[in-house]
Specification:
Distance between the termini: 3 Å
Radius of gyration: 21 Å
Largest sheet: 2 strands, antiparallel
Strand order of the largest sheet: 1-2
Strand content: under 5%
Number of helices: 13
Number of domains: 1
Number of strands: 2
Shape: globular
Helix content: 55-70%
């Protein structure tokens, strides 16, 4: 999920955001290792707080992704003049950037699922459901959740929401620009995005029930908007008090709620951290360690492909070594390294060319290049 807008101007690189992206991706990998199932001998020797933070809370990497996406897309579109033509080119560029690695990961996931079914003598059923043509085609257009079809890979639901986030935000920003320039509406951005923020807040506030993983963007729209508002507040196109107030409202809702509270809390914390780091002028140098930047670079491929690789590594490891504390430690290290190596290869072979292809979709009125793995 890389956010890139390019012209001939020098690239602005936010190393802090890349590092957060890498941390989030690695955290999700650790979450899917599932210590209760795969580290049954090792887990009793680990402090409970360590198991909770490192493994069980790894799903909180997802709200980090969503907030970063809002921040980056707001940066990318900060000087864009959006009309129907621009919207179409923006959508094409985003899909050109996201889709080749996504399609490649589908091939990888299906390949591993087929090998697993043969090795275990089971029916070929990715994510425990038969693979129909309808299910496959829905995946190709990011609509499997809307059609009520099981994801082939457990992480794909977030991609479907990301695409919705991008398109809806670009459309709303275009509406705000039209109201400002064609209808001379003062504070058009506030007139458009304040209601959008209120509607988004109704979900964490509990006005609408939590029905589990959403199939449309609205239940988690507040996470993306937090990133947008953090960026606008940093760049003084939106008063910081609004971002702080919105974050306070959502945090209060998270504290009072028993559902999705950690998800919302993590989103607020990340957004406010981004705002404060930006205001401290440290966005380009904090967490610029090479290994974190490398993880940020490959994080999209790592996110897309880690689940089948983790499963295959532990399956083979336990076949060869049986279950013990040491075999679990070795399998844990091997799984992480295998995921990272595979993601690095996929980045070079698939992601990097997809970035180059996306650059061929020209966006007029776009500011300088910014790249972040997303």
């Amino acid at each position: 999920m890389n956010a890139e807008i390019s012209t001939s101007k020098p690239k602005v690189h936010f190393h802090f955001l890349d590092a957060l992206r890498g941390i989030a991706a690695l955290w999700v990998v650790l979450f899917h290792i599932e210590p209760d199932d795969r580290l049954v001998h090792l887990s009793p020797f680990l402090p409970k707080w360590f198991t909770v933070v490192v493994f069980e809370r790894g799903h909180l990497g997802v709200p980090i992704f969503f907030v970063l996406s809002g921040f980056v897309i707001a940066h990318s579109l900060r000087k864009a003049k959006i009309d129907f033509s621009y919207f179409g080119r923006f959508a094409l560029r985003r899909l050109t950037r996201l889709t080749p690695p996504y399609y490649a990961s589908i091939v990888v996931v299906l390949g591993f699922a087929f090998i697993s079914s043969q090795a275990k003598g089971e029916a070929f059923a990715p994510m425990y459901k038969p693979l129909s043509l309808q299910r496959l085609l829905a995946h190709l257009v990011y609509l499997q959740d809307i059609f009520g079809l099981e994801n082939i890979n457990d992480v794909y639901w977030t991609l479907c929401l990301e695409v919705q986030f991008y398109l809806v935000f670009c459309a709303l920003l275009g509406l705000a620009q039209w109201l400002e320039h064609s209808r001379n509406l003062p504070y058009a951005r506030v007139a458009v995005f304040a209601p959008a923020a209120i509607v988004a807040a109704l979900f964490p506030l509990g006005v609408f029930p939590d029905t589990g993983r959403p199939v449309i963007f609205l239940p988690l729209w507040h996470t993306f908007l937090l990133g947008v508002f953090a960026y606008w507040s940093w760049k003084n196109s939106w008063k910081p008090i609004f971002c702080y107030s919105y974050g306070t409202l959502l945090m209060a809702a998270a504290i009072a709620s028993s559902t999705r509270s950690m998800f919302t809390s993590a989103s607020v914390i990340v957004a406010l951290i981004l705002l404060e780091v930006g205001r401290a002028n440290r966005m380009q140098d904090w967490l610029s360690w090479r290994w974190l930047q490398f993880l940020g670079l490959i994080s999209y491929s790592l996110y897309l492909t880690h689940t089948p690789i983790v499963g295959a590594t532990f399956f083979l490891g336990y076949k060869l070594l049986n279950h013990s504390v040491w075999s679990e430690i070795l399998c844990l290290i091997a799984a992480i390294l295998s995921c990272v190596v595979f993601a690095a290869l996929m980045w070079h072979l698939i992601e990097k060319p997809s970035i180059q292809w996306s650059h061929k979709v020209k966006l007029v009125n776009s500011p300088e290049t910014y790249q972040i793995t997303s």
